[in-house]
Specification:
heterodimer; A: alpha/beta; five-stranded parallel sheet; 5 helices; about 40% helix; B: about 525 residues; alpha+beta; Beta-Lactamase; five-stranded antiparallel sheet; elongated
Chain lengths: ~120, ~525
């Protein structure tokens, strides 16, 4: 259910994952933008054009959760998919409460990502 | 009276007491020395008998004297005599028959007061006896050695001009040192030596010292010789020695060279068996290593979430790359350029994951403590594997101030990393409660003189003054779930590497832990 041409912003301080994620999204037919921090994403004019945001939760500086709060304050509507390598059970709760569209754990199943993107980008 | 007139002057000149008497003891002549010795004057003594003057003397005392006189014409005895003022003197007496001019039946007696010299001799004998008893009875192994052949050998070597520096000569010629051992004779040993080194037969111990020195201890013997010829009074060292049956054991060897005995070529050696001490040290070190290991495993348990975080990153990247690869290959025209790029990334991420796992395994291992050159800065970078996630989780800013060109130090990498992680975790936890201020963790390294210094600083609440003194003691903890071993073990690790660890409060607030280790 992927719509070609959709722009997805990938935000993650881990270089390997960020580059790999970009490659994966492109192989699925999406266009991508990549940022190594939430701050650089917020400061970027191109970032505003993203149809969807895929963001790591735990990063040095602003976290993914804080980013979602900041986006809400700015009334930016792009759905945020949160990704995390952390394993604590409370993370899921925090992500849901912040309004994330879904939470993916690293490493995640391909199908989970496809389902998540499908659901999010149906609107 | 003719006799007296003839010989009186003469016998007065003699320093020893001379008494001339008949076979029955009638005193015919008495010189001045006799008066000095016994107290009676010539006038008082002449004409009296020996018994009159000295009192009755038992037959048993004089019989051997008379027997000797009859047999050989001379007799010699030591006897106690009473002086005029009632004192008793020990006198060495000789009797010669034939009088002063061959008159049969007259006996010339000389007397020498040996009271003092006998007492001195007795004292000397007693002292020797006491020494012998001590020598025998001491719980340590004692040896009396004859060093004179060695002295000669060294003298000849020096005289030959071939050697100017014995220290270097010994180091370069261990065979020569062994020869010196073969020239060092065992004069006497005590019972403990036979027990410790021998098999119950003292006689077989009285050869040379060579059998008792393992090859690897030759340099210690050489050092002892150098000490002796260098005029030192003693030398001691811990080394391995050998029983007569060849079993090696750790020993404290001490040699002493008191000048008056040394000049006669005598050397005294004491040996104390250190086997029990060495074994105790080994067990203590093993226990310390086990405890450090247990603490590491416990720390890894606490850091499990952070570790999982670190490992999941490369795994997630590999997984995303692989899925992408399948998609690129599934197209009508597979995009091989992309596949090649991502395959290369997969390889890199796999190596990264393996390296993280490797370091975690090293932390969890109970391997023997090593002492190898390590870099403080590298260890801090490696420790970041365990700390990064914790730091991000708590939203702490880390300030790394790592001096470049830091000298290496000698230590166990895993254990020292454990200390770094421990101190950093303590700092992070200390700052945990504070939501207001900007939390900063400082890790600073520098070299000061010949030491490598690590400072771990936080701006938490600092250490309570009451706790400063006992901070590093076992079981000290301020955490309800803590076991309180972390800092105690950290200190034992640092001290084991020859360093020190100190805690203090910073001027601006917060705590500072300073680890100082010797550089190589």
């Amino acid at each position: 259910m992927s719509k070609p041409g959709l722009l997805i912003a990938v935000i993650d301080d881990d270089d390997s994952f960020r580059v790999a994620m970009e490659g994966l999204l492109r192989s699925m037919g999406y266009r991508t933008l990549a940022f190594s921090s939430a701050e650089t994403f917020l400061a970027s004019p191109e970032g505003e054009r993203a149809d969807c945001i895929l963001s790591d939760i735990q990063m040095p500086g602003m976290s993914g959760i804080e980013l979602k709060q900041r986006l809400d304050e700015q009334h930016r509507r792009a759905p945020v998919i949160m990704v995390t390598a952390r394993t604590e059970p409370t993370i899921r709760q925090q992500a849901i409460e912040s309004g994330a569209a879904c939470l993916l754990r690293k490493p995640f199943e391909m199908q989970t990502l496809v389902d998540c993107l499908g659901r999010v980008l149906l609107h | 009276m003719d006799f007296l007139a003839r010989h009186d002057d003469l016998i007065d000149l003699v320093h020893e007491s001379i008494i001339v008497h008949s076979a029955d003891g009638l005193i015919l002549a008495w010189n001045s020395a006799s008066e000095a010795l016994y107290g009676w004057s010539k006038g008082e003594a002449v004409g009296k008998t020996l018994e009159d003057i000295f009192g009755p003397v038992g037959e048993t005392k004089t019989r051997p004297l008379r027997d000797q006189l009859r047999a050989e014409g001379r007799g010699h005895i030591e006897m106690c005599r009473r002086t005029r003022d009632g004192a008793t003197r020990l006198v060495e007496i000789t009797w010669a028959g034939g009088g002063l001019d061959g008159s049969a039946g007259e006996i010339v007696e000389t007397g020498r007061d040996v009271t003092e010299s006998r007492a001195a001799g007795d004292a000397l004998r007693k002292s020797e006896h006491r020494y012998r008893n001590l020598f025998q009875a001491m719980a340590a192994s004692f040896w009396e050695l004859d060093f004179s052949p060695v002295g000669e050998l060294l003298y000849l070597k020096k005289k030959s001009g071939l050697v100017d520096n014995f220290e270097r000569y010994f180091a370069e010629n261990p065979g020569f040192v062994r020869e010196l051992m073969r020239e060092t004779r065992v004069v006497d040993v005590n019972d403990q030596t036979v027990t410790l080194f021998g098999r119950g037969d003292k006689a077989e111990m009285l050869g040379t010292v060579e059998p008792f020195w393992p090859e690897t201890s030759t340099h210690i013997y050489a050092a002892a010789v150098l000490s002796a010829i260098g005029g030192k009074l003693n030398y001691s060292a811990q080394t391995m020695l050998r029983t007569i049956e060849g079993r090696e054991f750790p020993a404290l060897f001490t040699a002493c060279y008191p000048p008056d005995t040394f000049n006669k070529g005598t050397l005294l050696v004491g040996v104390i068996d250190m086997s029990r001490e060495i074994e105790a040290q080994r067990r203590a070190a093993q226990m310390q290593s086990d405890m450090a290991h247990a603490a590491r495993v416990s720390m890894l348990g606490e850091l499990a979430a952070s570790i999982a975080h670190e490992v999941n990153q490369p795994l997630a990247a590999i997984s995303a790359n692989a899925e992408a690869g399948l998609r690129w290959l599934d197209r009508d025209i597979p995009d091989l350029r992309e596949v090649k790029a991502l395959t290369s990334r997969i390889a890199a991420d796999s190596r990264r994951a393996a390296s993280i796992i490797g370091r975690i395994r090293a932390m969890a291992s109970g391997s023997k403590v090593e002492s190898v050159p390590v870099s403080m800065n590298d260890m801090i970078s490696d420790a970041a594997i365990f700390l990064r996630s914790e730091i991000q989780k708590r939203d702490v800013r880390v300030s790394l101030s790592l001096s470049s060109g830091l000298p290496m130090l000698l230590g166990d990498k895993v254990q020292l990393q454990q200390v770094i992680v421990n101190l950093a975790m303590n700092a992070l936890q200390a700052m945990g409660g504070d939501q207001s201020a900007r939390r900063v963790l400082v890790l600073r390294t520098r070299s000061i003189e010949s030491r490598v210094v690590l400072e771990v600083e936080d701006n938490g609440p600092g250490i309570h003054p009451d706790h400063l003194a006992t901070l590093f003691d076992s079981f000290f903890t301020t955490r309800p779930d803590g076991m309180g071993m972390g800092l105690a073990i950290a200190r034992s690790i640092v001290q084991g590497a020859g360093g020190t660890i100190v805690a203090e409060n910073r001027e601006g607030g917060g705590a500072r832990f300073t680890v100082s280790l010797p550089a190589i």
